[in-house]
Each structure stands twice: as structure tokens, then as C-alpha cells.
């Protein structure tokens, strides 16, 4: 793990004030200063300790099952007349990329002497990944989850409870992810000394967007080595990932940001269509504002009220986007596309029938754009398969073709 803050002078990684271009920072109530400053002052030092790195790497290897395979998808490649590799985060313990980050943060929390962990969750994947590492380390775990999401995601609620976590319903607002995040922040304000808040994506006040990206950067670190081995070149022509808050995409892009030949494609959820009023295409629909402690692009009305997002996939149903992605878009380094609910469903069936892999609905959004990019037969394309589809079977079966 390379932990020095932006030693390369990169225009795309975080700067010393916690910004990505004009996005990021820490816009927090004064009550949160002690917690956030403690993290700002310590995260790079702790992450660079050899004992931390050893413990992190050992758990990624033997507990999560890393490195995750980079799979050459032959039949899918044939269909699009190019070379498509899937980064198999779906094969990780707990079924998605989220666990890379929760392992990193729980090790950090332990070194800061924290006894209690809180988290927010939408679909429940981050809640499960957090409850899992709390069981592993014997720490108390409280997960905030919108009341509606609790009803929609019953299997993940059951998993969290079996793992020993307390699941607290967020009953304000639309009773979904944004409201669960508000409740978690409120808890943190009330418990500043013994509690660490494990945020599940590259969102929130600095240092979270950078810290989470670094924990997820193992994805592109492995892709480089695996591509070198398979193709003789560590660089793909395209790196493609779906974006909710943007953590799997940040991990997939991390070690390619300063390689201009690599096209970075972020795929947002268009819901029923970007202009339908039922969308989560934050970058296209959003404008500059502050959400959950970070200055970034978010969906809001003219007077600054947050617009409720919509996506078939709960993991992409967030009205903001991580500041790193706002900056990649703003600087034109990144390419932002969006996929509708229907496109994602079709892509999920396509991957399942061509490769025998059932992807998470979130990941299906990334797969859905393969048809819209003009690849050359010689191109090397890496798609991050951020998670497996078990949690989405009910939705898939309803749309069975
Ligand atoms: C949570 C989740 C996402 C969206 O989160 P990011 O931070 O944007 O990666 C994507 N895919 C899966 C499988 C998820 O569980």
C-alpha cells in the first residue's frame, strides 16, 4: 500500500487539505471536530505501520480470499469483439468489495482504542461487511438502516443480527440510506470518545474519501499485476465500474489515475431514465453542494433540498457521489455514463447466460455499458464485478425472461 499523501504531485489524488480539485474537504458540525480530526491526524501514520500492513494483508489473503481472480470472459468478449476481463470482487467473503474497507477500518479503530463501531447501510451489504469484522474482532456493532430498506432487504438484516449487530431503523425522511447516514452521524456526535464510524464508501468528510479509496486500491494494485501476467502489459485500455458513492470505482481506478492511456469509465444508475424524475445519475443531474460533510456534486432543488434518488439497485440509490469522482468528471479525466434499471437487468441476464456468473444489480450497471462503447478488437477492458447477485435474486426472478 502506498500511503504517502500525493507524493507524485498527482492532480487526481487527494491534496494536503483533503480536496480533490474543488471537491471534498470536511464540512462538519463543531461537535464532530474531535472525531474527525483524530482520524485526519492519524490515518496515514497508522496505515503506514508495518504491523498494520501485515495484519491487513494477512486478513485480505486468508479471510477475504484475495487476490480476487481477474477472469478473461471469453464468450462475453466474443459478443463485443474485444477482450473483457472481470475483476471478481463477487468472490470475496461476504460477496462484494465492501469487506476490503471494513477490514482496514476495524484495524484502524482498534489502534485508536475504540470499543464500539457504528455504520450506515442501504442494501445491507456494508452493514453485513461491518457486522462481520466486528464479530471477527469482538467489538460492539450498531448499524443504522432506513426503515424501508429494512423491509426490502430482510436477508441482510437477518445476517447482521446473526453476526451480533444491533440494527437500528432510521425513521426520518424517506427512511433510506441518506437518512440512515444522518442517524449514524448523530450517534457519532453523542459518542465521540469510544466510537468509530465505519463509512462504507468514498463519501463523508476528509479523510474518509481518501482512506476508503486507499483500502479499496488493492483492487487496481492486483489488476496491474494480473494484467502484466496475462497480457504482458499492466495497463488496460478501459477500466469500468459502477458508482453509488464510488468506492469500488475508486479502487478500480486508483493505480490508473495517472496513466492517461487508461480510460476510466464510471457508470451511474439512471433509474427509469436520466430525465424521468426517477434517477440516481448524480453527476449529470447534480450541482455543487455539501452532503454528509463533503463538498461534491449532489441532486438538489434550487433551494438546496436533496432530491430523492431512484434506482432498482439499493447500492446505487444515493443522491451524492464521492468527491474524487466529481473531480474526475469535472477535470474530464473520467468518463461518466449511466445505465437504466432495464439495461442493468438485461446485462445481468446476459452475463449469467454467457459466463455462468450472476452479478449484483449494482455491478450489472457497469456491464450494461459494454454495448455502448466502441471497442477495438485489440482493446483490453477490465470491468469491476463489485458483487454477487444472491441478494438480488428476487428482483431478477420477477423479471425472468
Ligand atoms: C455498495 C455496493 C456498490 C456501490 O457502492 P460504491 O461505493 O459505489 O462501490 C456497488 N456494488 C456492490 C456489489 C455493492 O454492494
From TrEMBL:
Belongs to the TrpB family. Pathway: Amino-acid biosynthesis; L-tryptophan biosynthesis; L-tryptophan from chorismate: step 5/5. It catalyses: (1S,2R)-1-C-(indol-3-yl)glycerol 3-phosphate + L-serine = D-glyceraldehyde 3-phosphate + L-tryptophan + H2O. Tetramer of two alpha and two beta chains. GO terms for cellular component: cytoplasm. Pfam families: PALP. Gene3D superfamilies: 3.40.50.1100. It comes from the Bacteria. This is Tryptophan synthase beta chain. The modification N6-(pyridoxal phosphate)lysine is found at residue 98. One of its GO terms (molecular function) is tryptophan synthase activity. Transmembrane segments: none annotated. The beta subunit is responsible for the synthesis of L-tryptophan from indole and L-serine. It comes from Chitinophaga skermanii. Keywords: Amino-acid biosynthesis, Aromatic amino acid biosynthesis, Lyase, Pyridoxal phosphate, Tryptophan biosynthesis. It is an enzyme of class 4 (lyase). Residues 65-387 form the Tryptophan synthase beta chain-like PALP domain. Its cofactor is pyridoxal 5'-phosphate. PROSITE patterns: TRP_SYNTHASE_BETA. InterPro entries: Trp_synth_b_CS, Trp_synth_beta, Trp_synth_beta/beta-like, TrpB-like_PALP, TrpB-like_PALP_sf. Its EC number is 4.2.1.20.
Amino acid at each position: 500500500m502506498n500511503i504517502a499523501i500525493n507524493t507524485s504531485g498527482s492532480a487526481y489524488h487527494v491534496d494536503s487539505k483533503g480536496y480533490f480539485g474543488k471537491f471534498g474537504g470536511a464540512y462538519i458540525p463543531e461537535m464532530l471536530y474531535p472525531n474527525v480530526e483524530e482520524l485526519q491526524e492519524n490515518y496515514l501514520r497508522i496505515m503506514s505501520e508495518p504491523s498494520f500492513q501485515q495484519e491487513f494483508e494477512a486478513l485480505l489473503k486468508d479471510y477475504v480470499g484475495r487476490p480476487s481472480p481477474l477472469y478473461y470472459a471469453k464468450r462475453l468478449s466474443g459478443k463485443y469483439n474485444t477482450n473483457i476481463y472481470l475483476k471478481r470482487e463477487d468472490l470475496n467473503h461476504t460477496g462484494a468489495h465492501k469487506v476490503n474497507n471494513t477490514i482496514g477500518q476495524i484495524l484502524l479503530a482498534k489502534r485508536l482504542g475504540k470499543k464500539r463501531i457504528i455504520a450506515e447501510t442501504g442494501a445491507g451489504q456494508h452493514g453485513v461487511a461491518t457486522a462481520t469484522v466486528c464479530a471477527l474482532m469482538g467489538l460492539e456493532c450498531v448499524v443504522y438502516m432506513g426503515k424501508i430498506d429494512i423491509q426490502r432487504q430482510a436477508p441482510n438484516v437477518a445476517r447482521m443480527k446473526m453476526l451480533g449487530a444491533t440494527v437500528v431503523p432510521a425513521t426520518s425522511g424517506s427512511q433510506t440510506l441518506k437518512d440512515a447516514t444522518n442517524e449514524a452521524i448523530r450517534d457519532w456526535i453523542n459518542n465521540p470518545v469510544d466510537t468509530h464510524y465505519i463509512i462504507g464508501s468514498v463519501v463523508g468528510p476528509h479523510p474518509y474519501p481518501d482512506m476508503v479509496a486507499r483500502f479499496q486500491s488493492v483492487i487496481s494494485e492486483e489488476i496491474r499485476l494480473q494484467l502484466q501476467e496475462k497480457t504482458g502489459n499492466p495497463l488496460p485500455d478501459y477500466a469500468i465500474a459502477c458508482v453509488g458513492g464510488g468506492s469500488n470505482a475508486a479502487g478500480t481506478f486508483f493505480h490508473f489515475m495517472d496513466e492517461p492511456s487508461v480510460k476510466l469509465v464510471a457508470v451511474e444508475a439512471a433509474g427509469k431514465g436520466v430525465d424521468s424524475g426517477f434517477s440516481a445519475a448524480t453527476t449529470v443531474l447534480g450541482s455543487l453542494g455539501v452532503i454528509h460533510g463533503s463538498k461534491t456534486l449532489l441532486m438538489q432543488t434550487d433551494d438546496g433540498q436533496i432530491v430523492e434518488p431512484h434506482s432498482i439497485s439499493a447500492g446505487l440509490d444515493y443522491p451524492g457521489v464521492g468527491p474524487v469522482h466529481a473531480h474526475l468528471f469535472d477535470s474530464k479525466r473520467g468518463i461518466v455514463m449511466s445505465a437504466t434499471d432495464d439495461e442493468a437487468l438485461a446485462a445481468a441476464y446476459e452475463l449469467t447466460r454467457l459466463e455462468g456468473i450472476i452479478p449484483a444489480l449494482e455491478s450489472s450497471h457497469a456491464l450494461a455499458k459494454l454495448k455502448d462503447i466502441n471497442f477495438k478488437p485489440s482493446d483490453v477492458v477490465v470491468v469491476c464485478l463489485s458483487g454477487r447477485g444472491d441478494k438480488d435474486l428476487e428482483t431478477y426472478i420477477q423479471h425472468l425472461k
